[in-house]
Design a protein that fits this description.
By secondary structure, this protein is mainly alpha-helical. Helices cover 70% and strands 3% of the residues. The chain has a 3-stranded antiparallel sheet with strand order 1-2-3, with helices on one face. Helix 10 crosses helix 11.
């Protein structure tokens, strides 16, 4: 069905003709799956935490899912220039927030990652990730136009101070994810071998330092390597839920492990899906994440503009890597990271940050009309 006439040259009509509608549909399906799973895990989580309304997390998920859909569509309407400008503004705002929360942030589970805003909390690191990826890609792309400029050191400085603030919270998982995304952007934009060696050496040294200095990092790694010597309750219960679900699951609302599994509605929502809906839903979720990530990376790699190519690949990789990390933790394949399943887990900041990530990626990989490409070359 043709929604817009071919003669319609309005921005909305141009967006509809150039955006990847299949990826938008896949993202909306994931948001829908998150709503269904919030019905499964939300009441048990609300009861365990002590909320009077058993559907507290269900209503919250619905509100943020709608907001995430709006953010996804709105950010995908941006052109490459405005995507960079918006990300520069968001980076500055979120950086100041991350610096502020070290002084007045809301602490939970030994980490200070959230700012209280009204009656809710906001995690600025979820938004600064895609902003940094786009900003870094643009800075590195300037090396072709202005080779004498210190573009790589400036991009690395932005990355370093952001990771520094993440580690001070501390949030090692997000720092590792952002590092992977930044390295991918650096590689796509043309990573010199000297920088590659520095990343390898620096990453190994930082990893060892975090393992040595941070007890919770050491405990998580050791509990994965030596599970019989440490408390692995969460991971054991998550694996038990998936095993209990089998191929077709025990049925919607019939899961038992979610009632005793901490963070079942957030970090371990994949286990709830496995118990109640079985291996079939787990595989379908995996395929959706794979389709979005792989198709997105392929589309981004075909972009002629270095900035759009590096930013697009980095954003889609960020999305895919977070999904892989979350599912791997639920399946006991890697140490626990405390990371949500994109677009599915409960969490307002995570939903909005992931929607922004995908929206920006869609914007930067749209099929640009020749007139737009000509304009971009002169900006």
């Amino acid at each position: 069905m043709q929604i817009f006439r071919r003669s319609d040259t309005s921005p909305l009509a141009e967006w509809w003709r150039t955006v990847d509608k299949g990826l938008i549909a896949a993202a909306l399906i994931l948001l829908g799956a998150g709503l269904v799973l919030s019905l499964a895990a939300g009441p048990a989580a609300a009861s365990r935490i002590g909320y009077d309304d058993p559907f507290y997390f269900v209503y919250r998920q619905a509100i943020f899912a709608i907001a995430a859909a709006v953010v996804l569509i709105a950010s995908s309407l941006l052109d490459a220039v405005w995507a960079r400008r918006v990300c520069a503004i968001l980076f500055l705002i979120c950086f100041l927030m991350m610096a502020t929360l070290l002084l007045v942030g809301h602490e939970a589970k030994g980490a200070t990652r959230w700012l209280r805003i009204g009656g809710t909390t906001f995690q600025p690191s979820e938004v600064i990730k895609p902003a940094l990826i786009v900003l870094s890609a643009w800075l590195l792309a300037q090396r072709d136009k202005f080779p004498e400029g210190p573009w790589a050191p400036v991009a690395f400085a932005f990355y370093a101070v952001t990771v520094g603030l993440l580690l001070l919270q501390p949030d090692v998982g997000q720092a590792a994810l952002l590092t992977a995304g930044f390295i991918i952007v650096f590689f796509i934009a043309g990573l010199p071998w000297l920088w590659a060696g520095a990343f390898v050496v620096g990453g190994a040294g930082l990893g060892w330092g975090l393992y040595t200095l941070l007890p919770h990092v050491r405990q998580r790694v050791n509990s994965f390597l030596y599970p019989t010597e440490y408390d692995t309750y969460q991971i054991d219960k998550a694996r038990e839920a998936i095993e209990r679900g089998g191929m077709f699951g025990v049925g919607p609302g019939e899961g038992a492990v979610k009632r005793v599994l901490p963070d079942a509605h957030t970090d371990f929502i994949y286990s709830v899906a496995g118990e109640e809906f079985g291996l079939i839903l787990c595989v379908l979720l995996l395929l959706l994440f794979a389709v979005i990530s792989v198709k997105g990376v392929v589309a981004a790699s075909k972009q002629s503009d270095i900035y759009q190519r590096a930013a697009g690949v980095g954003l889609y990789s960020l999305f895919g890597l977070q999904a892989v990390i979350n599912m791997s933790v639920n399946l006991s394949l890697i140490p626990p990271k405390g990371m949500t399943l994109p677009l599915v887990s409960s969490g307002g900041s995570s939903l909005l940050g992931t929607a922004l990530t995908l929206g920006l990626a869609l914007a930067l990989t749209r099929k640009q009309p020749e007139s737009s490409l000509s304009h971009l070359r002169h900006v």
